[in-house]
Amino acid sequence: xxxxxxxxxxxxxxxxxxxxxxxxxxxxxxxxxxxxxxxxxxxxxxxxxxxxxxxxxxxxxxxxxxxxxxxxxxxxxxxxxxxxxxxxxxxxxxxxxxxxxxxxxxxxxxxxxxxxxxxxxxxxxxxxxxxxxxxxxxxxxxxxxxxxxxxxxxxxxxxxxxxxxxxxxxxxxxxxxxxxxxxxxxxxxxxxxxxxxxxxxxxxxxxxxxxxxxxxxxxxxxxxx
Length: 225
Fold this sequence. Notes:
By secondary structure, the protein is α/β, with parallel strands linked by helices. The protein has seven helices and 15 strands.
Protein backbone atom coordinates (compact mmCIF):
# COMPACT_ATOMS: atom_id res chain seq x y z
CA UNK A 1 0.00 0.00 0.00
CA UNK A 2 1.39 3.39 -1.01
CA UNK A 3 2.37 5.76 1.78
CA UNK A 4 0.49 9.05 1.61
CA UNK A 5 1.86 12.51 2.39
CA UNK A 6 -1.06 14.92 2.32
CA UNK A 7 -1.30 18.70 2.79
CA UNK A 8 -3.66 20.13 5.40
CA UNK A 9 -4.59 23.21 7.38
CA UNK A 10 -6.22 23.42 10.81
CA UNK A 11 -8.16 26.49 11.88
CA UNK A 12 -6.75 28.14 8.75
CA UNK A 13 -3.17 27.49 9.88
CA UNK A 14 -0.42 25.47 8.21
CA UNK A 15 1.12 24.84 11.65
CA UNK A 16 -0.81 21.59 11.90
CA UNK A 17 1.72 19.88 14.18
CA UNK A 18 0.91 22.17 17.09
CA UNK A 19 -2.67 20.87 17.16
CA UNK A 20 -2.21 17.07 16.83
CA UNK A 21 -0.33 14.29 18.56
CA UNK A 22 0.00 10.94 16.77
CA UNK A 23 1.77 7.64 17.24
CA UNK A 24 1.34 4.46 15.17
CA UNK A 25 -1.94 3.52 16.88
CA UNK A 26 -3.92 6.66 17.66
CA UNK A 27 -4.03 10.43 17.25
CA UNK A 28 -5.22 13.02 19.76
CA UNK A 29 -7.08 15.95 18.21
CA UNK A 30 -8.89 18.99 19.62
CA UNK A 31 -12.61 18.42 20.37
CA UNK A 32 -13.79 20.94 17.76
CA UNK A 33 -11.52 19.74 14.96
CA UNK A 34 -13.26 19.96 11.56
CA UNK A 35 -14.55 16.57 10.39
CA UNK A 36 -12.57 16.93 7.16
CA UNK A 37 -9.30 17.03 9.15
CA UNK A 38 -10.41 14.21 11.43
CA UNK A 39 -11.15 11.99 8.42
CA UNK A 40 -7.81 12.95 6.84
CA UNK A 41 -5.93 11.93 9.99
CA UNK A 42 -7.73 8.57 10.04
CA UNK A 43 -7.12 7.80 6.37
CA UNK A 44 -3.53 9.08 6.02
CA UNK A 45 -2.05 7.98 9.36
CA UNK A 46 -4.28 4.87 9.64
CA UNK A 47 -5.03 5.45 13.33
CA UNK A 48 -7.93 5.72 15.73
CA UNK A 49 -8.87 9.29 16.70
CA UNK A 50 -9.31 10.60 20.24
CA UNK A 51 -10.75 14.09 20.69
CA UNK A 52 -9.83 15.94 23.88
CA UNK A 53 -8.29 19.22 25.03
CA UNK A 54 -5.18 19.42 27.21
CA UNK A 55 -5.28 22.11 29.92
CA UNK A 56 -8.35 23.34 28.04
CA UNK A 57 -6.13 24.09 25.03
CA UNK A 58 -6.36 22.92 21.42
CA UNK A 59 -2.53 22.93 21.17
CA UNK A 60 -2.29 19.16 21.62
CA UNK A 61 0.97 18.76 19.69
CA UNK A 62 2.67 21.33 21.90
CA UNK A 63 1.33 19.84 25.15
CA UNK A 64 1.81 16.09 24.59
CA UNK A 65 4.80 13.81 24.01
CA UNK A 66 4.64 10.06 23.62
CA UNK A 67 5.36 6.85 21.77
CA UNK A 68 3.83 3.35 21.54
CA UNK A 69 4.31 2.81 25.28
CA UNK A 70 3.02 5.94 26.93
CA UNK A 71 2.08 9.61 27.02
CA UNK A 72 3.57 12.51 28.96
CA UNK A 73 1.20 15.38 29.77
CA UNK A 74 1.79 18.72 31.54
CA UNK A 75 1.21 18.68 35.28
CA UNK A 76 -1.59 21.24 34.94
CA UNK A 77 -3.66 18.93 32.73
CA UNK A 78 -7.24 19.08 34.01
CA UNK A 79 -8.26 16.07 36.08
CA UNK A 80 -11.19 15.25 33.81
CA UNK A 81 -8.89 15.28 30.75
CA UNK A 82 -6.43 12.93 32.45
CA UNK A 83 -9.21 10.60 33.58
CA UNK A 84 -10.75 10.57 30.09
CA UNK A 85 -7.45 9.51 28.54
CA UNK A 86 -6.89 6.86 31.24
CA UNK A 87 -10.33 5.38 30.53
CA UNK A 88 -9.87 5.56 26.77
CA UNK A 89 -6.31 4.22 26.69
CA UNK A 90 -6.55 1.34 29.14
CA UNK A 91 -3.28 -0.36 30.10
CA UNK A 92 -1.36 2.53 28.52
CA UNK A 93 1.20 4.49 30.56
CA UNK A 94 0.11 8.11 31.13
CA UNK A 95 2.06 10.45 33.41
CA UNK A 96 1.99 14.11 34.34
CA UNK A 97 5.35 15.89 34.02
CA UNK A 98 6.26 17.54 37.34
CA UNK A 99 7.75 20.60 35.66
CA UNK A 100 6.89 24.28 35.60
CA UNK A 101 7.15 23.99 31.81
CA UNK A 102 3.87 22.99 30.14
CA UNK A 103 4.97 22.62 26.51
CA UNK A 104 5.82 18.95 26.91
CA UNK A 105 5.69 18.28 23.18
CA UNK A 106 8.45 20.83 22.63
CA UNK A 107 10.59 19.52 25.50
CA UNK A 108 10.72 15.84 24.56
CA UNK A 109 11.54 14.08 21.28
CA UNK A 110 10.81 10.36 21.39
CA UNK A 111 10.22 7.20 19.39
CA UNK A 112 10.07 3.59 20.61
CA UNK A 113 13.87 3.33 20.93
CA UNK A 114 14.93 6.47 22.79
CA UNK A 115 14.10 9.98 23.94
CA UNK A 116 16.04 13.21 24.15
CA UNK A 117 14.91 16.02 26.40
CA UNK A 118 15.47 19.73 26.95
CA UNK A 119 18.73 19.82 28.97
CA UNK A 120 17.42 22.80 30.95
CA UNK A 121 14.47 20.86 32.38
CA UNK A 122 14.37 19.88 36.04
CA UNK A 123 16.51 16.79 36.68
CA UNK A 124 13.87 14.91 38.66
CA UNK A 125 11.63 14.49 35.62
CA UNK A 126 13.92 12.25 33.58
CA UNK A 127 13.08 9.03 35.45
CA UNK A 128 9.35 9.69 35.04
CA UNK A 129 9.81 10.17 31.29
CA UNK A 130 11.96 7.04 31.04
CA UNK A 131 9.59 4.86 33.07
CA UNK A 132 6.48 6.08 31.25
CA UNK A 133 7.84 5.83 27.71
CA UNK A 134 10.01 2.75 28.36
CA UNK A 135 13.13 4.27 26.78
CA UNK A 136 16.48 5.74 27.77
CA UNK A 137 16.29 9.53 28.13
CA UNK A 138 19.22 11.74 27.15
CA UNK A 139 19.42 15.51 27.79
CA UNK A 140 20.75 17.29 24.70
CA UNK A 141 20.22 20.07 22.19
CA UNK A 142 19.70 19.96 18.43
CA UNK A 143 21.44 22.66 16.38
CA UNK A 144 21.81 24.68 19.58
CA UNK A 145 18.09 24.52 20.39
CA UNK A 146 16.94 23.15 23.74
CA UNK A 147 13.33 22.70 22.56
CA UNK A 148 14.22 19.47 20.79
CA UNK A 149 10.62 18.51 20.15
CA UNK A 150 10.07 21.68 18.11
CA UNK A 151 13.06 21.47 15.74
CA UNK A 152 12.72 17.81 14.78
CA UNK A 153 10.19 15.07 14.11
CA UNK A 154 10.90 11.37 14.65
CA UNK A 155 9.11 8.07 14.03
CA UNK A 156 10.25 4.47 14.22
CA UNK A 157 11.40 4.79 10.60
CA UNK A 158 13.04 8.21 10.24
CA UNK A 159 13.87 11.59 11.69
CA UNK A 160 13.89 15.06 10.13
CA UNK A 161 15.95 17.69 11.92
CA UNK A 162 16.66 21.42 11.83
CA UNK A 163 18.69 22.36 8.69
CA UNK A 164 21.61 23.64 10.79
CA UNK A 165 22.09 20.32 12.56
CA UNK A 166 25.73 19.27 12.16
CA UNK A 167 26.94 16.01 10.60
CA UNK A 168 28.23 14.87 13.99
CA UNK A 169 24.84 15.55 15.57
CA UNK A 170 23.09 13.65 12.78
CA UNK A 171 25.31 10.60 13.30
CA UNK A 172 24.74 10.78 17.06
CA UNK A 173 20.96 11.07 16.68
CA UNK A 174 20.88 8.17 14.23
CA UNK A 175 22.70 6.02 16.78
CA UNK A 176 20.41 7.10 19.63
CA UNK A 177 17.07 6.67 17.82
CA UNK A 178 18.12 3.77 15.52
CA UNK A 179 16.65 5.45 12.43
CA UNK A 180 17.76 7.35 9.35
CA UNK A 181 18.29 11.04 10.19
CA UNK A 182 18.59 13.97 7.80
CA UNK A 183 17.93 17.70 7.66
CA UNK A 184 14.89 19.34 6.14
CA UNK A 185 12.38 22.15 6.36
CA UNK A 186 8.60 22.38 6.31
CA UNK A 187 6.00 24.99 5.34
CA UNK A 188 8.16 26.81 2.79
CA UNK A 189 11.46 26.87 4.66
CA UNK A 190 10.53 26.70 8.35
CA UNK A 191 13.22 24.99 10.45
CA UNK A 192 10.68 24.24 13.20
CA UNK A 193 9.86 20.86 11.73
CA UNK A 194 7.37 19.58 14.29
CA UNK A 195 5.06 22.60 13.95
CA UNK A 196 4.31 21.74 10.34
CA UNK A 197 4.10 17.94 10.27
CA UNK A 198 2.14 15.09 11.85
CA UNK A 199 3.88 11.85 10.96
CA UNK A 200 3.95 8.21 12.01
CA UNK A 201 5.29 5.03 10.39
CA UNK A 202 2.29 4.83 8.04
CA UNK A 203 1.84 8.32 6.61
CA UNK A 204 2.25 12.06 7.09
CA UNK A 205 0.25 15.25 7.07
CA UNK A 206 2.16 18.44 6.30
CA UNK A 207 1.18 22.09 6.44
CA UNK A 208 -0.47 23.49 3.33
CA UNK A 209 2.48 25.81 2.63
CA UNK A 210 4.89 22.87 2.36
CA UNK A 211 6.52 22.84 -1.08
CA UNK A 212 6.93 19.96 -3.51
CA UNK A 213 10.65 19.51 -2.78
CA UNK A 214 9.91 19.54 0.97
CA UNK A 215 7.28 16.81 0.49
CA UNK A 216 9.82 14.76 -1.46
CA UNK A 217 12.19 15.17 1.48
CA UNK A 218 9.52 13.88 3.85
CA UNK A 219 9.11 10.78 1.65
CA UNK A 220 12.87 10.22 1.50
CA UNK A 221 13.46 10.52 5.23
CA UNK A 222 10.40 8.80 6.70
CA UNK A 223 9.23 6.27 4.13
CA UNK A 224 12.08 5.07 1.91
CA UNK A 225 13.67 2.09 3.61
